[in-house]
Write a structure and sequence with these properties.
2 domains, 5-stranded parallel beta sheet, 4-stranded antiparallel beta sheet, alpha/beta, 40% helix, 8 helices, Rossmann fold, Arc Repressor Mutant, subunit A
Length: 226
Amino acid sequence: MRVLVIEDEGRLARYIKKGLEEHNFAVDVASDGEKGLSYVSGNEYDVIVLDLLLPKKDGLTVLRELRAGGNQAPVLILTARDALTDKVAGFDAGADDYLTKPFSFLELLLRVRALLRRGKVEPQVKLQVGDLLMDLTAHRVSRAGKILQLTNKEFALLEFFLRNPGRVLTRTTIAEHVWDYSFENTFSNVIDVFVNRLRNKIDRDFADKLLYTVKGVGYVLQEKEG
């Protein structure tokens, strides 16, 4: 899952980015409102974490422009402004949640996950296709009861496949949701390498294959029909 953090305080932005990445999110950081809107215009995000006191364009302006442009990505306002009037203004502008500073990272993480459940991502802590099971809470993947050892990036890649069973995912779509802004999605061979590594781990030792290549298009995770 991909998150955009629009926060001008560098140390705090790095703290949030590091924490979310440790929980398998791909995270981009924008240090001002204009840059945040630029990131959104060129990428699809599953959640946006938005400060209000931003240079160039303040957070409320950013939020209003997002909603006016039709972007419905869940937005969590993260700000030092704790007055009721500020919260009302935030929700009126289109925010989905509001968290004041200082804050616990665990609470931020829980709220981000809650926004994912509220949005297009299904409210599941366990994802499954066939006998392949991912437990998001335990950070564990198994197939036919056998525990599989995955790297963090492989785990994030598999989670995206499991959230989209039967859907053919292009390399661009995978890059947009599993890698961050620094990744050049023109280097599709990198994605091919990671998909092949993942396939070796989830399919190699099992008769029934789950991860397929759709030639010229991308990849799909599904049970074999018939």
